[in-house]
């Protein structure tokens, strides 16, 4: 079982000093920008710098372009953001909070990558700065593995 604590820092400059405290001990970070507002994309470099400076070097960072349902008002291309992600070693996808497209996938992939880092020894369960706490499994909880779900098992038909 994994339990994720999600902190929405809103990306606003006036909260920057406060949000920096949330980075400490984080095992993962979702950097979300609005594909219809270039200004949100333009802030990614400074947020990435903060994230990298204030977290474990093995922190999982996922770049997410939100509002993919608003293609007609897009200001940031998929290719541009994908290139930024590749250049900076980030996972990347576009999502829509409105339709729910890729929202669950973003959280699950982040958790899977964190789990993989634990399995490969990149995150130490005993180190407080790793952002990971270990507790025995509880019945009725979801277990994460490194394996992607079988597409056949996902079908609702």
TrEMBL record:
Bias kind Polar residues: ranges: 127-157
Gene3D superfamilies (alphabetical): P-loop containing nucleotide triphosphate hydrolases
SUPFAM superfamilies, alphabetized: P-loop containing nucleoside triphosphate hydrolases
Region (Disordered): 126-157
Entries under Pfam families matching the protein: Ras
A GO MF label: GTPase activity
Similarity comment text for this entry: Belongs to the small GTPase superfamily. Rab family.
Name of the featured protein: Ras-related protein Rab-14
The organism of origin for this protein: Glossina austeni (Savannah tsetse fly)
């Amino acid at each position: 079982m994994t339990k994720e604590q999600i902190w929405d820092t809103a990306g606003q400059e006036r909260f920057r000093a406060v949000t920096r405290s949330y980075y400490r001990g984080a095992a993962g970070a979702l950097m979300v920008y609005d594909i219809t507002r270039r200004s949100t994309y333009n802030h990614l470099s400074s947020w990435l710098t903060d994230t990298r400076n204030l977290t474990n070097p093995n922190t999982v960072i996922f770049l997410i372009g939100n509002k993919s349902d608003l293609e007609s008002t897009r200001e940031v291309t998929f290719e541009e953001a994908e290139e930024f992600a590749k250049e900076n070693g980030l996972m990347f996808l576009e999502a829509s909070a409105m339709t729910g497209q890729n929202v669950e996938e973003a959280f699950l992939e982040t958790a899977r990558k964190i789990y993989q880092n634990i399995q490969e020894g990149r995150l130490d369960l005993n180190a407080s700065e790793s952002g990971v706490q270990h507790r025995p499994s509880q019945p009725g909880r979801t277990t994460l593995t490194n394996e992607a779900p079988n597409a056949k098992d996902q079908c609702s038909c």
